[in-house]
Amino acid sequence: MHITIDARFWGPFNTGLGRYTENLIRHLLELPNATEYTLIINSDNHEKFIDYLDRVHLVLNNAPHHTLREQLSLSSNILQSKSDLIHFPHYIVPIFNSGKPYVVTIHDIIKHKYSKDSSTLNPILFRSKYFFYDWTVKNAIRDSKAIIVPSNYVKNDLVEWFKAPLSKIFVTYEGADDFKALKQVGNFSFPLADQSYILVVGNAYPYKNVQTVLASIAQLDENLHVVMVGVRDVFVHNLEPLIKSLGIKHRVHLLGFVDDATLSFLYSHALCYVSASLEEGFGIQPLEAMTMNCPVIVSDIPTYREICGNAVLYFPPQNHLALRDAILALTLTKRKTLIEKGKVKVSQYSWRKMAKETHEIYERIVAKSK
Question: Cα 238–244–249 angle (5° rounding)?
C-alpha cells in the first residue's frame, strides 16, 4: 500500500494542525508494516524530513496557501502520484484531483461558526475568500472516501451543518507531546521564575475569548501574572487597549511563539493552564499541560467535557468572575488532586494509537477501491 500525505503543515509553528501532522507521520512511520509513503512538503520544513529519507519519497510544493496556484500544484502532485490513497490533514483539498481516492481530516468548523471574527480583511475580499473556503470544505466532505475528525463533537457538527454521512466519519482522538522527554531549558531568561502565573497557549482569535482571562486576572492578587504563548498578530495587538484599561499591563507577558523546550518549562512552572475558548475541535493544550503536571482550568464547552472529563475545573466561558473563583479554588490540595486526575486522563490519549487507527482507515479505503 502506498499513501501520499500533505505534510506542508508539519511542526508546532502551525499550532494544533502542525502537531497533528507531525505526530501522525512520525508514528505512522513507526508502525510495523510495509506501507510506502510520499510526503508533500515545502521549503520551510524540508530539513525536518532528513531523518526519514530512507522511508519516504518527498515532493516539493511551495505554493502559497488558499490560492489558485496551490489548487493547481496540488492537483499536479496527485496526478503524478502512484499512491493508492491521498491523505489531506486539513480541509485544503484540490478541486481537480483526477479521481484519486482521498481521506481528509477536518479538525473543526470554527471558520463557519465564527467566520467574521477570524479575519481582518475588508468585507469584499473576506466574502470572496470565505466563499472559496466554504466551497473547498463542502467539496472535501462530498468527495472524500473518509473524513477523520478529532472528537465526537466535530463529527456531530459535520452531520448537522453539512449532512455528512455518519458512515464515512471516523473519530481518532489525538494525543499530547510528552514534554517530559525534552531537556529543560538551560538559558531561558524568564522574569517570573519566582512569581505565580497562569499560562495561556494558542492564538488570540476572538473565539478564544482571552478577554475573559484578562478580566479575571484584574480581579485577583496583584502578584498573580498571566503568560501568553502564541503567534503575535493583529488579534494579540487588539487586546492591548483592554490590558491597559484593566490596569494589568505590568502583569501580562506576551511571549509570542516559543519552542517546545521552553513551552515545557512554562507548563511545569505555572500555577495552572487556562483556556476560556468558546469553541474547540479537540484540546491538545490542556492535555499537554496535564503531561507536565500543570493543573487545568477550561471553559465549560462540549469538546472540553468530552476530552478532559473530570480532570479539570470548568467555568462558564464568558463569566470572568467564575474563572476568578476557579483560580482562587486552587489550594495546594486541589492542585495535587487535579494533577493526579490529569495524569490518569492524559494516559488515555496516544499519538501512536491515533496513527494506528488512521492506518486502519487507509487499509479499509484502499481495499474498497480495488
Answer: 100
